[in-house]
Amino acid sequence: MQVYPEFITEHEEKALLTELEPVLRRMRYEFDHWDNAIHGFRETERSQWSADNAVVLGRVRGLAFGAEHAAAALPHVHVLDLAAAGHIKPHVDAVRFCGDVIAGLCLVSSAVMQLVHNDKKHLVLNALLARRALYIMKGVARYEFTHAVLGGEESTWRGERLPRQRRVALICRTRPRPQDSRPDVKSGACSDTEPGFTL
Predict the structure, then answer these.
(1) Disordered: where is this region (predicted)?
(2) Run of H or E including 4
(3) Per the CB 3.0–4.6 Å rule, which of 79, 173, 174, 194 could disulfide with 98?
(4) Rounded distance, CA 16 to CA 28, Å?
(5) pTM of the predicted model as reported, rounded to 2 decimal places
């Protein structure tokens, strides 16, 4: 798990939201998800962006995927708008729908993401996903840890409450690995550290 604070500027954040808000405002927040992983959300996918915003997302993909995974990048960006009262339950992103790398750009507000090892439940990582930060999950963090966005009383950072506000995440992913794209493959939903910690 890698976190890059202030990956984009305030101006770039505003430009992304200006493009997205007209679409998001037409949608209602939902409180049921197909795999029960997300509560209080609205979402869409987008593959066409303004020239300036496409450059920003190109930077995200360039850092997250690099030359190794560039050819495997999915063409669309998953836009996930989480309400102030919403939260994301612990889950591992469905291997049938996305591959080795997941990168999320955090807009509007900050939140705490908690990762817990699938088998060794004492292995816990809380990561601060600050507004305008980029997080990248791959390898062990991607496949061997569940991740959740904490809500309500659980939303704390280093002993202090971090009140949840509305949060928008732009999520870029790679294509599923060949061995994970078969119909018989089962799938899920697709200690505090300093920013930049790598798991």
Answers:
(1) 176-199
(2) strand 2-4
(3) 173
(4) 20
(5) 0.87
- Residue 69: CB atoms within 10 A of its CB come to 17
Q: How far is CA 54 from the centre of its chain?
A: 18
Q: Residue 62 in contact with residue 15, Cβ under 8 Å?
A: no
**Rounded Cα–Cα distance for residues 10 and 40 (Å):** 26
Which CATH number characterizes residue 19's domain?
2.60.120.590
| DSSP code string of 67-106 | HHHGGGB-SSEEEEEEEEEEEEEEE---TTT--SEEEEEE
Q: Note whether residue 194 is domain-resident.
A: no
CB 101 within 8 A of CB 136: yes
Q: What is the number of domains present in the chain?
A: 1
User: What domain range includes position 88?
Assistant: 2-180
58: in domain: yes
How far apart are alpha carbons 179 and 166 in whole angstroms? 37
Task: Confirm whether 42 is domain-assigned.
Answer: yes
User: Amino acid identity of 47?
Assistant: S
pLDDT of residue 31: 86
Q: Does the residue 185 lie in any domain?
A: no
Q: Which two tokens stand for residue 132?
A: 């305008």
31: which 2 tokens? Answer: 């409180």
Provide the 10 A C-beta neighbour count for residue 38. Answer: 22
In sequence order, the 6+-apart residues with CB closer than 8 A to the CB of 159 are none
Query: Tens digits of per-residue pLDDT, 68-84?
Result: 888 889 999 999 999 99
